[in-house]
């Protein structure tokens, strides 16, 4: 264990020596700029795709589902971002990232089931496969932008578990896109919400893991 830690420390120091020095203030400005561009692009896509559409859903249902999506996104963003409270220079522990990534989708699915119990939908509101596919594609498209915006500032910064960090970032993007899906999608059908809103978060997490293994690993 000591040998592994020493080798890892030596590898990190070697990479630091090869890379040009960047001050923390400069890095924060870069991250802020990329985040702002990503947020603007995501918001533009959201409104280009129709913006908020309550449809036949009660306002309380929209607030409940979108609110939980926002809460999940905020928690995941916090966990997957650097923090002064994290003592390790390597970021969040693997166990924290894995736990947050694994439980996020089931929690979002439970929110859908709870919403169906509190606000039962009319069977006439149920939709078919084409609507599931189209809405799911929109969910993935809206999640791709924040995922890219979160990956770019972290390129080459994770020498320990880049794929796991990427998966966590993918699920974080999934949380944001779930919130947008509940704001723009007028269909209250629980099956539709699970297929077209929650399931894409797993796809984004898998894509994040694949991209993270390539982009985030320290060369």
Blueprint (SSEs and pairs):
Elements (H helix, E strand, L loop, with lengths): L1 H17 L5 H25 L10 H21 L14 H25 L10 H23 L10 H23 L5 H26 L4
Helix pairs in contact: 2-5, 3-4, 3-6, 4-6, 4-7, 5-6, 5-7, 6-7
Characterization of the model:
With 219 residues, this protein is an all-alpha fold. The chain has helices at 2-18, 24-48, 59-79, 94-118, 129-151, 162-184, 190-215. Helix 3 (59-79) runs antiparallel to helix 4 (94-118), helix 5 (129-151) packs parallel to helix 7 and helix 6 packs antiparallel against helix 7. The longest helix is centred in the last third of the chain and has 26 residues, at 190-215. The two termini are 22 Å apart. The protein has one domain. The relative contact order is 0.17.
Number of discrete helical segments: 7
Q: Using only CA atoms, what is the Rg?
A: 19 Å
Shape descriptor: elongated
Largest sheet: none
Secondary structural class? mainly alpha
Which key features would you list for this structure?
about 220 residues; 7 helices; elongated
Task: Summarize, please.
This protein has 219 residues and is an all-alpha fold. It is built from seven helices and no strands. The protein has one domain.
